[in-house]
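Field reference: sequence -> structure
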Amino acid sequence: MTRFQALRAVRELSACSDGEISSLLKYTDEVEVSAGDVVAQGGRLCTAFVVVVQGTLCAGFCRLRPGESFGWDAMWERSVNPATVIADSNARLLVMSHDQFRAAKGATPPRELRVLEPA
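Structure field:
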């Protein structure tokens, strides 16, 4: 999966045009993690929005696969991570810090207008 495809697959960005998705790429950092690495600690302030490009992550009872993400709501609300996220395998991730995430918020519809489908 390419970086573009990973962002295109994120449900919170589904209302964005391809051009808007492309413009968000400059606000993402690509990070590689090893199996067993802790990506986010549950109950601690969320410091990154994470999108899986390759590999899998475990977030509580959920497994996150390429194109799936973690941290959108916590970053939006500047709150804590709802779960600890651990890499199930070696993984390649796209990561947005708070500054980068603010840029993404500007390219998405207002939160109250988003229609989310159950995962």
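Note: Residues 112-119 have pLDDT under 50 and may be disordered.
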